[in-house]
Amino acid sequence: MDEYDVIIIGSGPAGLTAGIYAGRQGLKTLILEKQLAGGAGLMVPNMENYPGFELVSGKVLIDYTKKQALKYAKINEMEEVKKLEIISDHEIKVSSQKAEYKAKSVILCTGTTHRKLNAPGEKEFLGRGVFYCAVCDGPLFMGKRILIVGGGNTAIQGALYLDTIGSYTAVAHRRDELRAEKYLQEKLKEKDIAMFWDSVIDEIKGDMFVKSVVLLNKKTNEKNEYPIDGIFIAVGDIPSNGIAKDIRLETDKNGYIITDKSQKTSIQGIYSAGDVTGGVNQWVVACGEGAVAALSAYDDLMRIS
Ligand code: NAP
Fold it and tell me: Average pLDDT for consecutive 10-residue bins of the chain (305 residues)?
């Protein structure tokens, strides 16, 4: 069984930054990622609030960060952690579908997954017109009619991106006010993007592929059917906390992992950082938390050695 000082689970901005910091402290560090390095970071179209970059895409920032992290840590992509076992303080067995490892510390940076609407047709047309990531799947819809559902940053950034690549874009939001940051709202106003306010999805319809959507206006109780080619659902996130729950790590009522200011969790030797800990879900915050988690792990290991 390979042994590491630190095993980081997840390789979004938090996990990669934790890898850089842990490795630079001289800790033997492994990052395990169930998909490709970058996680949800890869899906961010454009960021204008990451310090040092006036405009940068998530993919570009991940590419830079991954390259930097590889100088200090081993990164195993497509390796999903299935189970953690606490053997004793700072002795944790980490099992993936490929191997078993022993770690003195574990940093959970498992992020979040897309919240589902549970609307009729959503499950049936998944991948056949229903999508959750505008950057990943948007290019399929150049010149086509797209509805984005949601009023947060992800929805509005997605709408702006789809408009840029030439889709006929509309947004449906359940209230009459957006949650997205003001600068995104201003950009939206400059574009020719239709808004359906106070509207929820009543049904997604089609044959092999999505053909239309029925919207219910919550104020008027009116239902209207609109022809569309695709629908992007961006109604927030739920924490990916499965392995954390299995070891009874403390979470809040919404399932986000509870940490202190040093990113320590309720179990000795386990730290957590990034979106899975809740809060404001900003790239720069995830990086900061990843750095703090790695430095906390280092401090604790120095104390026990
Ligand atoms: P979010 O901020 O939680 O917004 C979710 C949106 O979906 C809200 O407008 C919400 O409506 C709506 N919604 C939730 N459940 C719904 C349902 N069942 N039916 C219809 N609408 C529903 O989620 P997000 O936009 O994915 O952002 C997640 C986090 O990442 C946030 O903290 C955000 O700031 C951050 N983020 C930041 C950036 C950036 O830095 N630029 C980019 C993307 C995301 P209500 O408004 O009525 O609640």
Answer: 97 98 98 94 86 94 97 98 94 97 98 95 95 87 96 95 94 97 95 95 97 98 98 96 97 97 97 95 95 98 90
Residue owning the nearest CA to atom 26 of ligand 1:
236
Q: How far is the CA of 264 from the centre of ligand 1 (A)?
A: 27
At position 125, the amino acid (one-letter code) is F
Residue 260 pLDDT: 98
Q: From the CB of 208, is ligand 1 less than 6 Å away?
A: no
- Examine the domain organization and report whether 192 and 176 are in the same domain: yes
Q: Are residues 248 and 139 in the same domain?
A: no
Give me the pLDDT at residue 40, please. 84
**Alpha-helix residue ranges (DSSP H) falling in 133-240:** 134-137, 153-164, 182-190
**Atom number, ligand 1, closest to the C-alpha of residue 283:** 40
State the burial class of residue 126 (Cβ atoms within 10 Å of its Cβ: 0-12, 13-18, 19+): middle
Ligand 1 contact, 59 CB (< 6 A): no
If asked whether residues 9 and 60 sit together in one domain, one would say yes
| Greatest CA separation for the chain | 67
Domain that holds residue 28: 2-113+238-303
How far apart CA 117 and CA 201 sit, in angstroms, is 8
Q: 99 and 66, same structural domain? A: yes
pLDDT of residue 46: 82
**CA 87/CA 7 separation, integer angstroms:** 15
* Residues contacting residue 164 through CB under 8 Å, at least 6 positions apart: none
Question: What is the CA(156)–ligand 1 centre distance, in A?
Answer: 9
Kindly state if the Cβ of 35 falls inside 6 Å of ligand 1: no
Written as one string, the DSSP assignment of 84-121 is EEEEETTEEEEEESS-EEEEEEEEE---EEEPP---TT
